[in-house]
Design brief:
Distance between the termini: 40 Å
Helix content: under 10%
Structural class: mainly beta
Radius of gyration: 13 Å
Number of strands: 11
Shape: globular
Order of helices and strands: EEEEEEEEEEE
Number of helices: 0
Largest sheet: 7 strands, mixed
Strand content: over 45%
Length: 115
């Protein structure tokens, strides 16, 4: 059973930073890509960032230059460093892993950017 648990969300002012973490269990972590998605009220869930098993990274255009995805295979954890946060970044952020064609999701964690 793959389990993903997010942490590190909260309330931050515009221009501030947050670091999200996602701890994975029940899988050989280093073998699979990891990604972060987000869903804002009234919008579809979107892919924010992805890191492959080999360490290659990709981002949605709206967060390029501001967000950084990374992974620590020894800790079975993927991170999302979010800098220069904007109100439009407000959303529930979800950790995702695809294992043998099956999607696994964390429960989601709230990120609110507001003054």
């Amino acid at each position: 059973q793959v389990q993903l648990v997010e942490s590190g969300g909260g309330l931050v002012q515009p221009g501030g930073s947050l670091r999200l973490s996602c701890a994975a269990s029940g899988v050989t972590f280093s073998m699979y890509a990891m990604s972060w998605h987000r869903q804002a009220p009234g919008k579809e869930r979107e892919l924010v960032a992805r890191i492959s098993a080999g360490g290659s990274r990709s981002y949605v255009d709206s967060v390029k230059g501001r967000f950084t995805i990374s992974r620590d295979n020894d800790k079975n954890t993927v991170y999302l460093q979010m800098n220069s946060l904007k109100p439009e970044d407000t959303a529930v952020y979800y950790c995702n892993q695809v294992v043998r064609g099956m999607d696994y999701w964390g429960k989601g964690i709230q990120v609110t950017v507001s003054s």
